[in-house]
Fold this protein.
Amino acid sequence: MASPGKKAFALRIDPALWAEIERLAAQELRSANAQVEYLLREALQRRGRLPAAAEPDAKPRRRGDGGDD
């Protein structure tokens, strides 16, 4: 179920790339969906394109501490 206020969309992705995202997500204690969002935010931030409302918190959220992943 999608979180309130978030846009849901279908993503076609190479299975090998998805497997790596799942491995990375597990290492960082995130869901695969939260990992994709994290990577997208990180990429936008590096390019100076992250909207102010989407700025990440000072500390990364982990599963179980109130995050919505």
In short: The mean pLDDT is 84. The radius of gyration is 13 Å.
